[in-house]
Amino acid sequence: MKRILLSCTLACIILAGCTEKEPLYLNPELPAEKRVQDLMKRMTLEEKVAQMSQYVGVEHMKAAEKEMTPEEMKESHAQGFYPGLHSSELIEMTRQGLIGSFLHVVTAKEANLLQSYAMESRLRIPVLIGIDAVHGTGLYHGATIYPTSIGQAATFEPELVERASRETALEMRATGTHWAFTPNVEVARDARWGRVGETFGEDPYLVGQMGAATVRGLQTADFTGFDKVIACAKHFVGGSQPINGINGAPCDISDRTLHEVFLPPFKDCVDAGVFTFMMAHNELNGIPCHVSRYLMTDILRDRWQFDGFVVSDWMDIERVHDKHATAATLDEAYLQSVAHGMDMHMHGPDFADCIIRMVREGKLPEKRVNDAAAKILLAKFKLGLFENPYIDEEKVDEVVFNAAHQQTALEMARKSIILLKNENSLLPIDRNRYKKIFVTGPNADNETLLGDWSFRQPDENTITVIEGLQQVSPESDFEFFPFDTNLRTMEMSRVKQAKERAARADLAIVVVGENSMRYMWKEKTCGENVDRYELSLVGLQQELVEEIYNTGVPTIVVLVNGRPLSTEWIADHIPALVEAWEPGSFGGQAIAEILFGEVNPEGKLPITIPRSAGQIQTYYNYKQTSKWFNYGTGKSTPLFEFGYGLNYSRFEFSPITLSANSMTPQGSITATVEVRNTGRVTGSEVVQMYIRDCYSSVVRPVKELKGFSKITLRPGESRKVSFEITARELSFYDIDMKYGVEKGDFLVMIGNSSRDIDLQREQFVVK
Ligand code: BGC
């Protein structure tokens, strides 16, 4: 009897299942595109526009509600709330399906909570959560923090960047976020700009390689799956050459420079399949990027066939009205932006009402809304959010900051650090000779190692410089003299005390630089929205270095900073100088290992270091007349050149051999050098190939990086390294802005930096 009852119940359940028709879009067996079509048919205009609307997370909003006035909020780029809208209303809106996406959601718990509200909505559409996971998902407490992008670029290892990005994707999904607002592939041409550390430096080719690697790592092909995320190429475009070095200031450049320098890395990201683009704060040649049809539609979609969606940056459509003033009303700004190609509005409540109204009034074609919503939904389907929008909070710790990720972060830190000077082989430190080591400087023991886009991390996750030194050389007798993290309030009395103490040591290590700590917004000297008009050390750091040097104790300076610093005096006087950038969770360990010779440094400068801000713009791929005359005072050369970086080995390069002396534009030539490690330790070298078109219809740079390859050689070992030269390496925009190769003589240069003295050269002709 019992058995019969059970079978009846089962049959009823199965029957009920068959008769209740699940909407097609909820069927995971169907292709994502089909599911989008089905869902779109069921959606109202309001629901579609909701997909285009992004808000900050509820917790973030609550914090801002407590801390800020409406005026402060308007100017802020980090905090968010919406005057007139309370955080509790945001929850209700999510329940009603009026929010498509969130940002600044920094706990797994909140991510789940927001999804649970979204699941109460009519169509049960999950929310897409974006986060600034620029070098690890650093806004999450406990994440693995990799070196910032400028340090990543210094590795010249795209494969490593890809691996770190893959791990970042895993940590993001484990903590409930799905969309990384990275890579920043702006070509950095002004070190005064605070965001340089967030870029891959000054060279379009290197930036493109690193950007594409980031996209591949985050998205893994077409990002279908529960452990992938979508990437975002940003900021499109020109913000990295702002007037006055100020974030968001106008960029006024020729179409030629735009196409030759600034666009190629973005195109590389499109080729790598990047699914989203973020527009830049700035105007480009008079047109705010957020309303630029040329950028969003003509170039991105029509020319490059970009197939994803475009998001606005923080309050930037609003600025079209209230800062750029090319729209008399906010409505006009929203209309222009969406009509010209914007798909998602980052921030706040006014946008949706306006867009709905514009469609109803016939001012905006509904097709634009449909196209935008469809792409956003496609991402949600592919990411598997309809199948499971939640994450298992119990499993977060298995992924976040796990042993494998820690290992990658450490490896990347080791490879990102650049040895800029090493007079009389002061480095690596001879432990027997230098027993008592004095360590000081504001960056010797703080989280500035983590760089911008990182919130405070657990102390036990970060190895500071002094901690690294003690760990790597327990036998040394370290005396540590700390400074406060606030560089602006350093006191001379403490500098003097440091000098007195240093005088008693055998060796001094001074760790100076900048402060990009996002959670100490008022103390930052670098990072987002902290631009500068000079590039010297802030506060009394220079005095500190000079005082220690004046003791006569051999002194090593370590720079922990996000942007190039014009430390000319230090480069002239201090025997050993290390550029560590912001090397992440294990930065202190990596620095110590390099100082003590347990790791051979191999980083190379991805950006030129100027002697002073007055040298800006200064970059290696300049045009010859930029250096026609020398400056009347001071030296005209940069402090350190692009591609430069020392190590503890010695590498010798043979002359270049070419497979032929001439080629056709359709053909190719192979250029080969033999590299030998003539030093006493195993080391890695970045073999760099530069090209110059000797005579051309328009003025071309003195050299341009067109290939690089990292090799590791044991002492005495040698290896041949070859580069293929094809039209790809030789093409440029000619006098009619046609892209191609011009016939004539070319120079190929191969070596271990962009400096002429480090390069072998050979000539060939394109016939
Ligand atoms: C930055 C973007 C960032 C966004 C969200 C803006 O201020 O310019 O790069 O993705 O904030 O945090």
Report on this structure.
- The chain contains 25 helices and 26 strands.
- It is an alpha/beta fold and 767 residues long.
- The strands form seven sheets. A six-stranded mixed sheet has the order 10-15-14-13-11-12, sandwiched between helices. Strands 18-26-25-20-21 form a five-stranded mixed sheet. A four-stranded parallel sheet has the order 1-2-3-4.
- The longest helix is centred in the N-terminal third of the chain and has 18 residues.
- It starts with a helix and ends with a strand.
- The N terminus is likely disordered.
- The chain binds beta-D-glucopyranose.
- Beta-D-glucopyranose binds next to loops.
The chain-level structural class is alpha/beta
Strand order of the largest sheet: 10-15-14-13-11-12
Number of helices: 25
Strand content: 15-25%
- Name the shape in a single word: globular
Bound molecules: beta-D-glucopyranose
> Could you give the count of β-strands?
26
Enumerate the spans where pLDDT stays under 50 for 5 or more consecutive residues.
Answer: 1-19
